Amino acid sequence: MARGIVPEDIAAYAAAHSAGRDAVQQRLVERTREATGAASVMQIGGDQGVFMEVLTRSIGAKTAIEIGTFTGYSSLAIARGLGPDGRLICCDVSAEWTSIAREHWKLAGVEQRIDLRIAPALETLASLDPATRFDLAFIDADKAGYAAYIETLYPILRPGAIVLIDNTLWGGGVLDTSRDDPDTVALRDLNDALVRDDRFTVAMLTIGDGVTMLEKR
Asked: Which stretches of the chain are assigned E, i.e. beta strand?
């Protein structure tokens, strides 16, 4: 979800000094806005997309999984970073919104790298071969489910694998102790648990709406 936490002028400057969107990405942004209206805020920002593509490529990832695909901006970034020999499993429950993703994956020439599974993510994870190992995971779905996704993913992440978790600053809501809605509480509790979790090296980044990066030890 693109809820900027950095001051707008700084965010605009950073965007202007980062790689911009190409024609397919810009088309996807516009199509998402037209098709989903207010829900389009769930799409990650261009700066986060560039970061994810570069990170995926730089760690040499060949296998990746995404939990929460929406209209496909993040999966497009990951698939590009994986390269033609890489494979990405996308988990989502909306055939409608992911149809937009499929259209733009094809336009970008990465559709053969992506295996979209329409089902609750925990069901998809349970169906995987236990011998499966992922180099990279991205979690951007129901906030109350984040902890369960991490626990279920852990055994199928290779040592040194990277997990990216979106929205962990939640527009600054995790700092507001008066907020006790389920999403905010779930994210606050997760953040507190992860920083104490000796299975991972943890870096919380102030990109987008907060992205926590885990490296499996």
From this structure: 63-67, 87-92, 114-118, 134-139, 157-166, 200-205, 211-216
